[in-house]
Amino acid sequence: MPIVGSLIKSLIDLRDTIVSEPEAKEAQQEVLTKLLKKAKDTQFGKHYDFESILKADDIQKAFAEKVPYFDYNKLNEEWWHKLHDGEGDVTWPGRPPYFAVSSGTTGKSSKRIPVTDEMLESIRKAGIKQVSALSNFDLPPDFFEKEIMMLGSSTDLEKEGDHEEGEISGISASNIPFWFRGYYKPGEEISKIEEWDERVQRIAENAKNWDIGALSGIPSWLELMMKKVIEYNNLDNIHDIWPNLQVYASGGVAFEPYEKSFNALLARPITVIDTYLASEGFLAVQARPDTNAMKLILDNGIYFEFVPFKAEYINQDGSIVDDAPVISLDEVEEEKDYVLLISTVSGAWRYLIGDTIKFTDVKRKEIRITGRTKFFLNVVGSQLSVNKMNDAVQELEEKFDIKIPEFTLAAVRIDGEFHHHWYLGTEGETSEEELKEALDESLKNANKNYKVARSKALKGVKVTKIHPDIFPEWSAANKKKGGQVKMEKVMDEEKFAKWEKFVSEKNA
After folding, report:
1. Is the domain of 273 the same as that of 223?
2. Residue 33 in domain
3. What is the pLDDT of residue 366?
4. Which range, of 45-54, 198-207, 248-257, 322-331, averages the lowest pLDDT?
5. Residues 239, 275 within the same domain
6. Where is the GH3 middle domain (predicted)?
7. What is residue 80's DSSP assignment?
8. What average pLDDT does this structure show over 343-361?
9. What does the pLDDT look like over 9-36, one tens digit per residue?
10. Predicted pLDDT of residue 180
């Protein structure tokens, strides 16, 4: 009998009976108050007069009225650049020991987001909440004795003056508690390897030595890793080498588009648990098995606000207009899309993280990521969000029994008229014409704005099939492989022209 696993499972169950969930509104009010008190003497806090906000009868309302919205570019140009110039007490007391480097999916160059000691503690607490939530899933005691493969970016961080830089997954992994290191794979030595292909090769070579019970990471890169392990060890599926694999913790992107191709690498189904760890913080975890939604973490140094996701509130670059209305957590409605704003213990204030979400259960405060503000395709009034795109692509997978793990598209002009040109990553034999017609019809049925646009300014749809491997190769050529890198779902015409040239050269 797995005694250690039974003990760990019992401790997790006991903790859940002792630790009660905070009341949402009170928890968020307390978080905001603590944030404002902590930062009131910073340059940012003095500029926006946090002292007076703290004295207001309604602190949340006063905060929203006094402090404007910020995306990364605005916050960096006005405030965070001072940190890079050596200043302290800018938007948070002191100077951050880390910067999370994120090329993201939207920016032209890397973002450098401060990560404070308080944020590391917030991430640690969120990780404990994630582990605690496993008690709600039907997992046997021996699962808690197995090793966990955390496939993130390199933990070999760059030293820059008085701080270190790397992707958030690498920063988090480099701060893993000592008691967890025995469970953590691929281990410190392999995790420090910068080059993705070399790191994955070493994982494949050592895979037979590990008893992996859980995987964690971005689905597209985990798929490539599993394929390499299967190929190198001459296996039929990943369970041939890791028979006790039972859990996959996804993160940062919707898992559904990858589900079919991911499951094809398994011998049997495993439990998929969604998490929401961004460069700016650990925001939500899936707390129960009867849903694919995640519960916002409301008492952990992050204050949430929500802007209704409507075309008139979104600028072409994905930012939000200055006078866009904002609502608090106790005002949100189910199944409506919102732009997510956060204020954090790393000194981000009313910060546009770039994601859109919807509440699937307001009472439980459970959400799903529905897309990116930058990937909102509205060039000719089609108002096409990423979740609608994902749903349509999933319908294609089901209709034609094919796998389409990746796609991208753009609104392009052909003979002066707009068309949507889709590139679908698939090895299926369905013709491009069949895919085009089914895709167009699916979007018309799901989105009335798209249907109207197709009868007017959006004159046509084009589909091009390519090998799925071209997508990670594009990421490698433009950013890098692995880590937190995600594929752009929507491109502007300039980037799309470069994409088409890249694909053409690959197919030549």
Report:
1. yes
2. yes
3. 95
4. 248-257
5. yes
6. 296-364
7. I
8. 94
9. 444 454 554 455 679 999 999 999 999 9
10. 64
Residue 456 has, within 13 A of its CA and on its CB side, a CA count of 11
How is 290-351 classified by DSSP, letter by letter?
Answer: T-S-EEE--SSSEEEEEEE--GGGB-TTS-B-TT---B-GGG--BT-EEEEEEEETTS--SE
477's CB contacts (< 8 A; 6+ apart) are: 502
pTM comes to 0.81
CB contact at 8 A, 473 and 466: no
Across 14-28, b (16+ Cβ under 10 Å) vs e yields: eeeeeeeeeebeebb
Helices (H) and strands (E) in the chain, counts: 18, 18
Overall average pLDDT of the 52-77 stretch: 95
Q: Is the sign of the CA dihedral 318, 319, 322, 326 positive or negative?
A: positive
Q: Is the pLDDT of residue 479 over 70?
A: no
Residue pair 235/274 in contact (Cβ under 8 Å)? The answer is no
Long-range contacts of range 472-475, CB-CB < 8 Å, 24 or more positions apart?
Answer: 472/220, 472/221, 472/224, 473/506, 474/499, 474/502
pLDDT at 343: 98
Supply 424's token pair: 């679908």
Same domain, 351 and 480: no
Residue 144 shares a structural domain with residue 202: yes
Contact by Cβ (8 Å): 203, 229:
yes
Q: What are phi and psi of 425, to 5 degrees?
A: -85, 105
Q: For position 415, what pLDDT does the model report?
A: 80
Residues 423 and 356 in one domain: no
The separation between the first and the last C-alpha atoms of the chain, rounded to the nearest angstrom, is: 58
- Dump pLDDT digits (tens) for 402-411: 999 899 988 8
**Residue 446 CB burial class (10 angstroms; 0-12, 13-18, ≥19):** middle
* Phi, psi (rounded to 5 degrees) for 58: -120, 95
CA separation for the pair 54, 39 (Å, rounded): 11
Q: Taking the C-alpha atoms of 171, 177, 181 and 187 in order, what is their torsion angle to the nearest 10 degrees?
A: 10
Rounded-to-10 torsion of CA 204, 210, 214, 217: -30
Task: Write the Ramachandran bin of 333: left for phi over 0, alpha for psi from -120 to 50, otherwise beta.
Answer: beta
Find the helix packing angle between 386-400 and 432-446, rounded to 10°: 130
Nearest CA to 316 out of 356, 370, 388, 373 is that of 373
Give the range of the structural domain holding residue 82, as residue numbers without chain letter.
24-118+297-369
214 or 20, greater pLDDT: 214
Six-digit token pair at 421? 């040109």
| Number of CB atoms found within 10 A of residue 451's CB | 16
Whether residues 352 and 412 fall in one domain: no
